[in-house]
Amino acid sequence: MDMQKNYDPKEFEDRLYKEWMDKGYFRAEADPAKIPFTIVIPPPNITGQLHLGHALDNTIIDALIRFKRMQGYAALYLPGCDHASIATEVKIVEQMKAEGLTKKDVGRDGFLERAWAWKEKYGGRIVEQMKKMGVSCDWSRLAFTMDENCSRAVREVFVNLYEKGLIYRGDRIINWCPSCKTALSDAEVEYSEEDSFFWHLKYPVKGSDESIVVATTRPETMLGDTAVAVNPKDKRYAHMVGKTLVLPLVGREIPVVADDYVDMEFGSGAVKITPAHDPNDFEVGLRHSLPVIRVMNDDGTMNEEAGAYCGMDRYAAREKIVEDLKACGALVNIEPHKHNVGHCYRCHSTVEPIVSKQWFVKMAPLAKPAIDAVARNKIKFTPERFAKIYFNWMEGIKDWCISRQLWWGHRIPVWYCADCGEMTVSKTDPSECAHCHSKHIHQDEDVLDTWFSSALWPFSTLGYPDKTDDFNYFYPTDVLSCGYDIIFFWVARMIFSGIEHTGKVPFRDVLLHGIVRDEQGRKMSKSLGNGIDPLEVIGEYGADSLRFSLISGVGPGNDTRYSRTKVEAGRNFLNKVWNASRFVLMNCEGMKVPPLSEIRLSPADKWIVSRLESCIREVTLNMNKFELGIAAGTLYDFLWSDFCDWYIELSKNALYGGDEGKKAATLGVLCFVLDNALRLLHPFVPFITEEIWRNIPGNEGKSIMVAEFPRYNAKLAYKKEAKAFEPVMDIIKAVRNMKTSVNCPPSKKVKLYVSVPNRRVVQANAGSVLKLAGASEIAFVESGADVAEKTMSQVTETCTVYVPLGELVDPEKERARLSAELDRILGEIARADGKLQNRGFVEKAPRALVEQERAKLEKFIGMKEKVEAQLRELE
RNA sequence: GGAGGCAUAGCUCAGUUGGUUAGAGCGCUCGCUUCACAUGCGAGAGGUCGUAGGUUCGAGUCCUACUGUCUCUACCA
Which nucleotides of strand B are protein-proximal, with an atom < 7 A from a CB? Predict the structure, then answer.
């Protein structure tokens, strides 16, 4: 046994990980003799490197997986990455821009070549990072959302949904990012409140002096207006309905229509209708058969429909249009206004609602069973409150726009025929049109929303659409753990996809965690530059310290702050565990350590074994409830307080007392407790526990990774015995207490008088008491009256301890100390009193200051009385 | 507009189904070269648990209202 004085994770983490890999401990196989336990990773985007959020994901999942594996389950942690269509494409466009290239320059194939190269580089880096974290993934199953099987699943699902009429193509209002030049789903738009204006515009009625005032936050869209709507019940406008307005600047004649959509109370009660650029207006347009006039190009410039403004950027056009409206008298006024503006979640450009031909998933039929599954508890959210958020979103869900005008992703499996114009939707690449057999077909240029493939992750990674043995064994998965920020993007979509395509819910538990924030509570982001690289933390403190700090003190669903001091606290704890183990193992050298079953347990032994059992129970219970923070905290307290501070200190008497039999027995208990505690701790901090555990006598050549997780043993609970042991600790605490309170050095040996109902247990541990309390001898008494000397005493829950005053303090020294203290206090009293006697101070100084001074005076008077009393005691 | 979270020690947070004297880490004070560990040991100080009500034998915990704060969500032109 050769352990360094200080815990140094660098020395063994990489070595152990490699060993685990070599021995194949991470591999999970379909084993009929075992119960499966599966978690699929929330696949990180290949856009870059992992951050602390991923570190938290991995720590939680790995802790659960290791826990279950040790309990004998066929535990599968399935790793992989997401191609992250739009996010990656943005990165690659940036990369090309640095080289002076555009997508057009390199073409689709050239672009995809770069994308795959990117994937190789960053996907590989992510895997390396995860390995550094110590996660026990089955790397033989490493998946990628665009690998062969996932792609097959995507096509299968797309075609099936299409054939059921649940995927359709059509012109709808979608969110358009003019910078990424693609459509976005509703979930991909982030709203933020911005200061803007209401521009009130006046549209004249044709052939009349009348006009209608409408308001807009996007004046440039007025070029595409094809009506003005009023509420049918609105008496103010009743006579206007059906009349014709002349659109300023454009001169187009547009009708006034009546529609319930209009809120009479809001603004002027009249709304300009721009079907091509607003989702509500689009609906109104459908109801009134209004023309749809799109005035903007895909890049955010105005198109030929915009007439004189054609070619101008949307914001330049806005300025010019406002100017021109003002010039022609159509601008009534401008009113400051705050409103929510949607931004692209990847590039943060302002999105434009635009009418566009896209592919959609019809959501209503899919949402219903997905809602039922959660409502009927087939899927349980932890914490439960997130189920409400899920219901809220699912119940109001709209059709999902799945086509993206991007190149990196799953290309839509639809081919258009140049001859007959029909579509061929196929799982495999067709060579001819399914309708007219023409060879002149071309595939849809667009790719699918990246979340379309993520939605299939729990089954596409396990062999779907094939019903493989793996699929049958490991699916449905057990727990899905991720941040609450992707409930809509990912969790919800996996749920309805799993039910629809496999007929089963994809997982039984959804365990949500919060966001890892920086020390000041801010979200970590590139723009703030406050991101933390897990690898740097690991380099400095080791993976175990990072894991432990991420998991401790955090409940499910709660945000957490990263801080260096927290990692340090974790490291300090592990150093403590390291040294406690070093102590135990050093003492084992050259000894034959008996198993617990062969040891006659002392009261102290029974106490620590009892504490261990209750720790096992607590940890197991909390792991099962996903309360990892509580489980980790329980272990922290057990190891540091019970094991190190008490039992190890108590054991020294037996170890060093010269009785070889006692020594061996005590070592047996120390090893038993340490062995169990390490196994309990292993899911959280795999490396250090492995490094130590295999050195415990009897564990040679074995691995803690595949050792059994401790099981609560009622026979070892020793509740009564543990309770009976308490006076021993109480006596020690009481003596330490008294010594400190009178400034007596801990090393000064004092005589003790103890009044305790059960003398036997104290007697049996007298050696420990003398050592830990710093005492010379113990005498038992019935009460204080039996003690002849003048004493100081302390009453505890289980006993009363008396210490002769003369033993505690050197009367001369103590008198001198107290006199000096008294002098100082008297000086303070004089000073404060003088100040308060000064009328100028009392009247003119801030009241708080005067109060403070009064309080000080009172405090010092109190202290004076106590010290005087102590002096009298010494006489 | 709707929904939800949070509010506990100087700071960051635990507190599991309501049950003695509300805990931890860091910081602070005092004392320790105690033979595993100064990344440590021992002893402390510090909280009317956001405010006001209510339910209860009993409330940090449950209910109501309010205040502050953060977040999600929504089509108010």
Answer: 2-6, 12-16, 21, 24-26, 30-44, 72-77
